[in-house]
Amino acid sequence: MSTLRKPGDLVAAGLAPPERLPELERVAARYALAITPDMAELIDPADPADPIARQLMPDAAELNATPEEDADPIGDFAHSPVEGIVHRYRDRVLLKPTHTCAVYCRFCFRREMVGPEGLSNLTAAQLDAAFAYIAERPEIWEVIVTGGDPFVLSPRRLADISARLAAIEHVKVVRYHTRVPVVDPGAVTDELVAAIKCEGKAVYVALHANHSRELTPAARAACARIIDAGLPMLSQTVLLKGVNDDPETLGALMRGFVENRIRPYYLHQGDLAPGTSHQRTSIAEGRAVMRALRGRFSGLCQPTYVLDIPGGHGKVPVGPNYVGETSVEDPNGVIHAYPPKRHD
């Protein structure tokens, strides 16, 4: 099986009944569609609440945008001084060499930018300009290579990016953001892993996964190839209604990360991308999940719950607060005086 890119492919693969074809076509005409064979195998078409299908299968609800939603919900364009660069924080930049992904998530905050109808990959001249921008600014300590998904690029192109970043003395950290190790684990070859090593720099790989079923044996092996090569991995997860918005499901995913030597990093509140309201929880719901997670799972399994403020104002932690002016709440909900009252 090859990657499913058309609504008819989904019907032919048995992932959707024929009567849904018109609905799927309407959504696919608006937003990019791609489901890899690895992900297609995980979908249970008999389960209307299947968590993998909710992430990747088109849904008519995507055509219903709400007033607060925005085509650029976190302000990428407002902070893009040159094509392919987003410079929102002083000491780090995003480098987006491609706007292609192996799969297209239905909740993606860059859904207006990625895919066949979105932004193009950077040209050679645009890539030169992006690297020049980084090289000219000594305050840039970290470069986050994202997209799209940079792991869809060939090892040759990734090696070129690594070599060019290695040549910029003030860049000390390179971070790759990717979904490929779970959605197309066979693509994580020894050649690809060697290509993302960056001489003289600390290289990290941030893995986007949202449900423990995504951590298949093949995905775990792909992550092991990266980690065993000396490249630490972090996790990124989006809090999604009906996918991972309960503590047991989210906790199982976090445990899966830790068991595979991947540090839980960020749990993202769903961004206000068009047509994604049916996927978003409220912040109150997210805080409740995080509070339950703290009480039931190891400290190693606690991501930072963050909101990317609309308009490009940056990420802030929005997790539950346990400390008041004169008290602190324990994971079981019991309030304790702080500092403790002394009993003479």
Walk me through what this model shows:
- It is built from 11 helices and 11 strands.
- The protein is α/β, with parallel strands linked by helices and 344 residues long.
- Strand 1 (85-89) and strand 2 form a beta hairpin.
- Helix 6 (155-166) packs parallel to helix 8.
- The protein is globular and about 70 Å long.
On the 0-100 scale, what is the average pLDDT? 94
Helix content: 25-40%
Main sheet makeup = 9 strands, mixed
Which runs of at least 5 residues are low in confidence (pLDDT < 50)? none
Query: What overall geometry do the principal axes of the alpha carbons give?
Result: globular
Q: Please, how many helices?
A: 11
Radius of gyration: 21 Å
What class do helices, strands and sheet pairing give?
alpha/beta
Order of helices and strands: HHHHEEHEHEHHEHEHEHEEEE
Number of strands: 11
- End-to-end Cα distance, whole Å, is 75 Å
Going across the major beta sheet, what is the strand order?
A: 1-2-3-4-5-6-7-8-9
